[in-house]
């Protein structure tokens, strides 16, 4: 159970403590932040409102711990990550419970998120062993004007202290996708959990605590964005920021110093369906891609661009599947659960109303109860409607009918976002040519967009972010190259 058994030290009465110097602590502020349950819209959990002074201390400890951690043998760092992965998986039920209560993730998906996170950590440990063991060896005489008297040995060293800010929709998985690579590469890690999702995140951190990482190497500070948000992201001791979330990321990137950034800020993933597509396959992927976790995935299908000639047939198939989606509480493992907050539900409603006023065709009745929104497919959407371009992050999916491939590609590329996209066709040559023309970080052929498997590169362009994620890319991104050059007194011996 969340907050019980092995997790009991995390609680102070009914308030979750923050994690620093290898201990769970109460903030000197005496203040707390409420986390509302999206289903009941009532307070579910409370976390500490940390102060700037506490943030400063966390960075001091992180810096000191990192120096020693960087010198800890790589195989020992990997072993510690494997321990954390195992403990996380052992405690999947308790962590999933927190995910259900604070972000309304359907029960089964919540368990899957925790298991996937354990697998991600283990894979990261293995990948780190492989890629950090290798360096480069260069000889000077390949560059014009040089003799063979300089030998360069380069390897990857850690950046220092990584600040990780995961989003509410995957507070565990998108936290460990940052923590794992940072730690295996020899960095220290400061985590700022999202407010909704903080308690799941803190439980995950406790698994790292139980795995026996050095004191101060990992910390998790909770609190009000207004008090510690900018303070964290602009802190002079941050050497790298890995952020996943909304357009706050753009502001963070503007204010951050001269440090590597890994930012993933959302998507408006287009799904182009050609005339020759397998429409059953396309329809299943549109429903899974568009409505799973109530559309609250950056990789969700967010606009369907269907050829006129097959649009009616496709829409009918999608509608038949939408009708079977169950709507209700996450505890009952419903397909559609309440969206994360009232403001999010209001935003979605605004997009839907705009489309309705401008003449879009609704295949389902618009229905909302608190944060719970029934799934809708909005057809005959035109480019003058907000929903054609904006990211609802909810179970509402627009369909735009297109006459040419170029029209589909244009809509995909004219968007501010460029995370993923997908194309459905049986003509593989056409699929590859379209994928090549779609300006997004990834294009899926004959499947819905998705980040996983977690070792695949994952990146967005334009407002979808900077830097590439995926296990290997994240490890590389959280390191820098260090070279040692051996300068010989002259070229090698000239023999006989
Ligand atoms: O919400 C953003 C996530 O990176 C999406 O991950 O494709 O595994 O759902 P996913």
UniProtKB/TrEMBL annotation:
<dbReference type="GO" id="GO:0008886">
    <property type="term" value="F:glyceraldehyde-3-phosphate dehydrogenase (NADP+) (non-phosphorylating) activity"/>
</dbReference>
<comment type="similarity">
    <text>Belongs to the aldehyde dehydrogenase family.</text>
</comment>
<dbReference type="GO" id="GO:0005737">
    <property type="term" value="C:cytoplasm"/>
</dbReference>
<dbReference type="InterPro" id="IPR051020">
    <property type="entry name" value="ALDH-related_metabolic_enz"/>
</dbReference>
<dbReference type="Pfam" id="PF00171">
    <property type="entry name" value="Aldedh"/>
</dbReference>
<dbReference type="InterPro" id="IPR015590">
    <property type="entry name" value="Aldehyde_DH_dom"/>
</dbReference>
<keyword id="KW-0560">Oxidoreductase</keyword>
<dbReference type="InterPro" id="IPR016161">
    <property type="entry name" value="Ald_DH/histidinol_DH"/>
</dbReference>
<keyword id="KW-0963">Cytoplasm</keyword>
<dbReference type="InterPro" id="IPR016160">
    <property type="entry name" value="Ald_DH_CS_CYS"/>
</dbReference>
<feature type="domain" description="Aldehyde dehydrogenase">
    <location>
        <begin position="24"/>
        <end position="483"/>
    </location>
</feature>
<dbReference type="InterPro" id="IPR016162">
    <property type="entry name" value="Ald_DH_N"/>
</dbReference>
<dbReference type="InterPro" id="IPR029510">
    <property type="entry name" value="Ald_DH_CS_GLU"/>
</dbReference>
<keyword id="KW-0521">NADP</keyword>
<protein>
    <recommendedName>
        <fullName>NADP-dependent glyceraldehyde-3-phosphate dehydrogenase</fullName>
        <ecNumber>1.2.1.9</ecNumber>
    </recommendedName>
</protein>
<dbReference type="InterPro" id="IPR016163">
    <property type="entry name" value="Ald_DH_C"/>
</dbReference>
<feature type="active site">
    <location>
        <position position="264"/>
    </location>
</feature>
